[in-house]
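User: Predict structure, ligand PPS.
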Amino acid sequence: MGAFKQPHGGELKELYLPEHRADEVKEADAADLASWDLTPRQVCDLDLLLNGAFSPLEGFLGEADYESVCDSMRLQSGVLWPIPVTLDVAAEFADQIGTGDTIALRDSEGVLIAVMEVAERWTPDRESEAQRVYGTADDTHPAVDYLLHQAGPVYLGGKVYGIEPPTFHDFKLLRDSPSELRGRFRKLGWRKVVAFQTRNPLHRAHQELTFRAARESEANLLIHPVVGMAKSGDIDHFTRVRCYEHVLEEYPEQTTTLSLLNLAMRMGGPRETLLHAIIRKNYGCTHFIVGRDHAGPGDDRSGQPFYGPYDAHELYRRHEEELDITMVPIKEVVYVENKAEYLPADETEPGDTIMELSESEFSRRLQEGLDIPEWFSFPKVVAELRRAHPPRHEQGFAVFFTGLSGSGKSTIANALMIKLLEDGSRPVTLLDGDIVRKNLSSELTFSAEHRDLNIQRIGFVASEITKNRGIAICAPIAPYARTRRLVREMISAHGGFIEVYVSTPLEVCESRDRKGLYAKARAGIVKGFTGIDDPYETPERAEVVVDTQDLSADLAAHRILITLEKLGYIR
Ligand code: PPS
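Assistant: Predicted complex:
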């Protein structure tokens, strides 16, 4: 079995065509080729295939390699490869493609990034892939969720030929291909380099432990954060990179460098750790720092971690020689107050005062604008994080009303809007059901599909408003729980989401019948009317529930204001 040995400085598989060939392809062939518009994750994968970070791969895996990687973490050639890199496409697209065809791979703006010779096309068993690669079919695992709910059903395998690298408008100088970074190391005379992988901001403890790792390996240090895709809810990479730049100033000069990695993480734990090591080897590193629960996806549906905290270390150790990049297990450090320094946890003495601040306590303090001690993080890092994550009373939020027609949503929403305008802390936008139907969704009917579209549009606009720190008040019927959940997710990523269920019973709404629609629905003139012949799914986790039978709009609005105050969104 041929082991993958690639000595430092060894040959990389860069897959870009020479410029003249790329120009020929662009001019002659590309317009006639079937085009696949790459998803953001596929752009990341293709980027790393083309620039050599995924060496020795020469394209997206074919079926035999895929099966072999799933089962035994090896390509058919015997080379160690832990996670399948596949091109998943829609069935309608795959139906047009025959094996032997060449297809164009384009980014979201239609730019031709590469062409691919399709050697194979097959329909994988994605649940089995999840089991074999990630050890679970539980879709709370992000990679399993992707496989089961987002990936296209057909895989295309074949060699890729790069035409032009994907364009990035941000941090261009910090994005390097493996050969560029190897060139930098050569220029600097760095013979040993230890890489640190991260998807989080760095605080003092990280700076300490990375520097110690470098010193102990007698190597220079590469801070190599992922800026492609990581876990939802992570801090955006713009903020993180500004933080990394500040932390870089804290290392002794000439010891450490920073480069950004456009990897789409799978959060695949131990197997992904091996992939991280292979990538760093390709980037010219000699050592790789492996953390506790490295690339871990968090907890499963039952609250248990998917992988053990040291599974990644164990798997790495079994393959370390073959990987030919030395593992540096993270050594936990703690702040010892009486000595005013960080020390490895196993070097503290009885009587030492050890200071701790958990991740969740740190987030709470950040969220509430409270003090964060200097021993924990660098003031410049904290300032960046505070700027990106203002306290709740400066964040945007959406108040999302839901309830039957005639339940009183619009009246309360209007009363609430006036009170919030009076408060004056942020701009307020009202997206009432009728206003939206007139201005944003005038072509839509009341079919289930169109109602979903209508609510998603409201969710989109409200999430933009929230992102820009305004207040969106939405008041549609929004009868389906799944769609309300989607909107909650869309908006919570940017600020507050407060669901208000106006629970006025059907009989009361019907007896009011302000628009005469209930009568028409009963008479069968209006079809698919919510509550009559179309379902209303009662919310189970609304932040506020109000029933307008025994509560005026004014009092209902007041109750919502109190909740907003309690949650910290207004003062
Ligand atoms: S949805 O389901 O959220 O997309 O509905 P929404 O956009 O809020 O629109 C609700 C208003 O449209 C009128 N209307 C109907 N409602 C429910 N079902 C049917 N079939 C229907 N046809 C028209 C109704 O007056 C709703 O207004 P409100 O303000 O809720 O009373």
